[in-house]
Fold this protein.
Amino acid sequence: MASEWFYQVMGKQVGPVSSVELRNLAQAGTVTTQTPVANAPSGPWVSAGRVNGLFALPNGAPPPAATTGTAQVPPPHAAASEESSGLGTATKIMLGVCGGVCVLVVAFLVWSIASRDTWELDNASRVSAKLDEADRLQQSDPLTAYKTYDEVLKEAKKHKITDEQFAQKLGNAEKARTALYPKVQEQIQAEEAERRRLTDEEARRVAEEKERIAQQDARKLALEKRVQEAVALYRDPPGSARNVLKAVKKLEAKTEVGVNCRDYCVAVGETWADVKLFAESRDGKRLPEFTFLLVSALERHKVAVDYWGLVIKGGVLSGPGDALQECWRAAHERVEMAEQLIGGDDVEAVIVRLEKLSEKNDVGR
C-alpha cells in the first residue's frame, strides 16, 4: 500500500497522511467505510471500506481483498518507524485546531474589554443631576421636566446599564415621564405639529429652490442655443425685413418733425398693415425676434393714437404731451433693437435683452 493517503471530510480534502495514521483515523471513527480515500490528490477516489486491512472484521476474519489494486495496509508494527519521529499528523492537526480556538477565545476577551460600553461610567453623574433637576420641576414646570426625562431616557436607551442603583434611577424617571404625559400632552402635540409644519415648509422651500434653479438652467441653455441660431439667421437677413423696417422708421420720422393727429393716425394704420403682412409672411416667421419687436413698436404707436383721440375729445385734461412721448420712446427702443438684429451689430446682446425683458414680463409694455 502506498505510504501516503488522502481522505475527504465534509467535502474537504485532507492529507497526506501515512497508512498508520489512516488506520488510526479509521479506528477512531474519523474515517468510516464510506469516506472517500485516494493515494493521490487527483484520485481515483474509492470508499475507505474497499481498502484492504483498513477496517477489522468481526471474529478476527481476514478483511476482503481491495478492488482498487492497492497494497494491503501494513500492521501497526510495520509502520512504527513513521511514528517514532514524533506525533502523528492527525494529532498535530487536532493540536493546531485547539490552539487556534484558544487564540480566538483570548482575542474575543481582549476585544470585549476594549469595546466595553463606558457611557454609564462617564455620564452617570451628569445624567443623575439632570434627573434630580427634572424631579424638582415636576410641579412647577411639568413640560420642562417631561422633556428632560425624555431626553435622558432616549440617551440611556442606546447603552447597556450595569449599575443597579443607576438602573433603578432610570426606571423611576421612566415612570415619572409616563405620569407627566397626560398633563403636557397637548403642549407636546402642538410642538410636534409646529416642528412638522416647519419641516414641511423647509422641504417646500428647498424643492422650490431646486425647481427655480432647474428652470434657470433650462432657460440659460435654451438662450445659448437660441443665440447661436440667431447669429447665423440674422447674418444675411432678407430684403423684406429691411423694407418693413424702413416703413416703421418713416413713421418714427413723422413724430420727430411734427405731425397732426389725423395724419398720424393714417400713417400708423398704413405702417401697421405693412408690419402685419410681414409678420404673416415666411420671412417674418423665420425672424421671430425681429417680427416681435416691430409688432410691439406698432402697438405702442396704436396706444398713442388712442390716447391722442381721448385728448381731442376732452377725455384727458392734462399732460397729453408726456404720455405721447412715452409711447413714442418705447416704440423707438424696440425699433432700435430690431435694427441691431438685421444689421448684425450685436445679435447676441439683443437676444439676451429680450430674454431679460421676458423674465420681467416687460416685453409687452
